[in-house]
């Protein structure tokens, strides 16, 4: 039976689609020890979460001290009773498993929220937008609430971030004025891909990027990339560009030796989306 699809798996998939594959099927002996910096980030997150809880006007029902099965049972019972606010609940349905930091009653249903020790948005202040990796996590919780018949009927959630703000996440809203795709669409795509990975029906390649240095598969992936002369080892040539080129130019050596003019048509290349 494939492993469950969790919020952390979806978060990692948005950051790097190879990370879930390695976490599920990689050789544990090849994992790097967690760095002191990563441990510091975890500790910072835990401290911030506790600080937020201490500032809540209405103390939540704290379920964090129970076993997984007991926590899930108590979460469902608390929602049946109409508890106002739950901390560290647990929800599941089929292959979906979610552990939202907060479940808040609004009207006749519940809205999920997460406490984040970073900013709840990304981009410049006048163009701030929800973070995709947060959005897919919140969408999973919202999906679970819908399946369990405990949602408000709206695809929305929230983040309490490091600035002390409650940042609303409208999961059904377009991502931008020129992008009709919603974060709910992104979640459905990520969920489908995660299921394919969990079922071993989709494999993918590692790629070198900014997130790699904090990953516990950094050494294992880097060794494979160097051995294969992967194009993502070149500056500014990330996963998406590599995937466009890989059929014609699978390695750095192939790129160095090729006649690039044969891929040019005027100022455009034969690779969709990759132009001069």
TrEMBL record:
Residues 65-221 form the PD-(D/E)XK endonuclease-like domain. It comes from the Bacteria. InterPro entries: PDDEXK-like_dom_sf (IPR011604), PDDEXK_AddAB-type (IPR038726). Pfam families: PDDEXK_1. This is PD-(D/E)XK endonuclease-like domain-containing protein.
